[in-house]
Design goal:
The structure holds 2 protein chains of 2 kinds.
Chain A lengths: L4 E3 L2 E4 L5 E6 L6 E7 L6 E7 L14 E5 L5 E5 L8 E8 L7 E3 L3 E5 L1
Parallel strand pairs in A: 2-10
Antiparallel strand pairs in A: 1-3, 3-7, 4-5, 4-8, 6-7, 8-9, 8-10
Chain B lengths: L3 E4 L2 E5 L4 E7 L4 E9 L6 E7 L4 E4 L2 E6 L4 E6 L8 E9 L5 E4 L3 E6 L1
Parallel strand pairs in B: 2-11
Antiparallel strand pairs in B: 1-3, 3-8, 4-5, 4-9, 6-7, 7-8, 9-10, 9-11
Chain lengths: ~110, ~110
């Protein structure tokens, strides 16, 4: 079946502009994560959605970052007033909470802020 | 919340040697421990996982061991090959934190010819 998809695959934006990144999880997966990965670095947790529970936003680096998940499926990560340090690959992942528990990653969106 | 520490951050081995990567976790309620491999420019992919009711699991050249008492788990790769060169991430799933998966900081493994 279809895996996790993300769009766009690449995004170049000017400093100060807002961007929206989209994630389509695997159908039926109730858990969805967003991560940020800078070049050569690890997986920086941003936000976690689990079913109808309140999202875990503890990893969002500033109030310029926000995310929503509509209808328990598609998620959008929004970065307002982008800065050069926001340049990174943004990865989305989804998991079934009823097992197996493997977390499936999307291909990522490479964001470049000029 | 859960905290996962991973060591070493970089590891260089000769082809054919074994490689061991170690992780510790803080939440005794964690019950699922996967390992992910990320090749350059690609997304992380699961290579092996272990649940808290098992002490060891093997899959060909890779194995994972879990010590619940000490709250640590390890990845063992035997007979390393150049294609094993990648970044490896450990993770722990905490039932007390909404079943959230927390990743370690990663280990860059380089297998030299």
């Amino acid at each position: 079946g279809a895996g996790v998809s993300q769009s766009p695959s690449n995004k170049v934006t000017e400093k100060g502009k807002d961007v929206e990144l989209r994630c389509d999880p695997i159908s039926g997966h109730t858990a969805l994560y967003w991560y940020r990965q800078s070049l050569g670095q690890g997986l920086e947790f941003l936000i976690y959605f689990q079913g109808n529970s309140a999202p875990d936003k503890s990893g969002l680096p500033s109030d310029r970052f926000s995310a929503e998940r509509t209808g328990g499926s598609v998620s959008t990560l929004t970065i307002q007033r982008t800065q050069q340090e926001d340049s990174a690959v943004y990865l989305c992942a989804s998991t079934s909470m009823t097992g197996p528990y493997e977390q499936y990653f999307g291909p990522g969106t490479r964001l470049t802020v000029t | 919340g859960e905290n996962v520490e991973q060591h070493p951050s970089t590891l260089s081995v000769q082809e054919g040697d074994s490689a061991v990567i170690k992780c510790t976790y803080s939440d005794s309620a964690s019950n699922y421990f996967p390992w992910y491999k990320q090749e350059l420019g690609k997304r992380p992919q699961l290579i092996i996982d272990i649940r808290s009711n098992v002490g060891e699991k093997k899959d060909q050249r890779i194995a994972v061991t879990l010590n619940k008492t000490a709250k640590h788990f390890s990845l063992h790769i035997t007979e390393t090959q150049p294609e094993d060169s990648a970044v490896y991430f450990c993770a722990a799933r905490s039932t007390g934190g909404g079943n959230k998966l927390t990743f370690g900081t990663g280990t860059q493994l380089k297998v030299e010819l």
